[in-house]
Amino acid sequence: MQLIRRVDALREAVGALRASGGRVALVPTMGALHAGHMNLVAEARRRAEHVVVSIFVNPRQFAPEEDLARYPRRESADARLLEEGGAAILWAPEVDEMYPEGFATSITLAGPALPLEGAVRPGHFDGVATVVAKLFNQVRPDIALFGEKDWQQLAVVTRMVADLDFGIEIVGVPIAREDDGLALSSRNAYLDDVERQAARALPRALGEAASAIKGGMPVAAALAQATKRLHDAGFDPVDYVTLTDGVTLAPLDQGAPGDRLLAAARLGRTRLIDNVPVSD
Ligand SMILES: Nc1ncnc2c1ncn2[C@@H]1O[C@H](COP(=O)(O)OP(=O)(O)OP(=O)(O)O)[C@@H](O)[C@H]1O
Ligand SMILES: CC(C)(CO)[C@@H](O)C(=O)[O-]
Ligand code: BAL
Hints:
Blueprint: E1 2-4, H1 7-19, E2 24-29, H2 35-47, E3 50-55, H3 75-85, E4 89-91, H4 95-98, H5 117-120, H6 124-139, E5 143-147, H7 151-163, E6 169-173, H8 193-198, H9 201-214, H10 219-232, E7 238-245, E8 259-267, E9 270-276
Parallel strand pairs: 1-4, 2-3, 2-5, 3-4, 5-6
Antiparallel strand pairs: 7-8, 8-9
Helix pairs in contact: 6-7, 9-10
């Protein structure tokens, strides 16, 4: 595996992979890799001959009060995992390589980027879309893989790729979970032991709400019950628990094919997100 930090070297290395034949897959990450990320890499290898993984903690998607400074950074351990996982290239640029002095461009989406994470974290998806567009132009992959854990991000990137004619196949990969249901996430490292136990309430509340809706409970009542369960477990604030169309992220008042029940809530200093299907 090649570790590359400069765009010109990346282009040369990807060009050499392409010349050897086969498809190129990109897995964008912010590092501190866990089994959820490695599932994306494994799925990428099943779908393409060459896998490029990016690790870049993108300052433009963090608000000033968010956790950019303490976001976990473990590049050497990540590189070992990726080598074992069969990645061809680890693309790990510094911030000034990604955003050189004078950088002045930003991508802004409406539609699926507006509600939920877009409302609670203003500017977040502009930062995500801008860096993902840059990663796409730097690597020019045939396919790119994103986790369903960040369901809205997957919907936003899918929309952007269609709107801007990137011609890249976007693949969503199912959520990898701990044995007790908690979705794997780099930010789980912030949880202390007591919070880690309490965090189980998030997937449970979503699972129960999904079953209740399938069983005929009105959506508003099921969402209120899930919100109460999260408050009782110590989550504060509960930013949202909502049923949406899985593509447009528009709110739904009853289950429908492709829908998604999404939640975000804070436990101490850790903000967790999760989602489950209802009608699939
Ligand atoms: N448990 C998971 N299952 C499936 N995909 C995941 C999981 N966790 C992360 N991913 C995906 O990995 C990619 C990179 O995500 P990122 O590096 O931000 O990791 P993360 O664990 O989501 O971190 P964070 O705690 O910052 O949300 C994203 O497409 C994300 O959806
Ligand atoms: C897609 C991404 C790598 C863009 O910085 C990030 O939002 C993430 O890790 O999900
Ligand atoms: N995994 C999503 C990236 C973020 O929360 O900034």
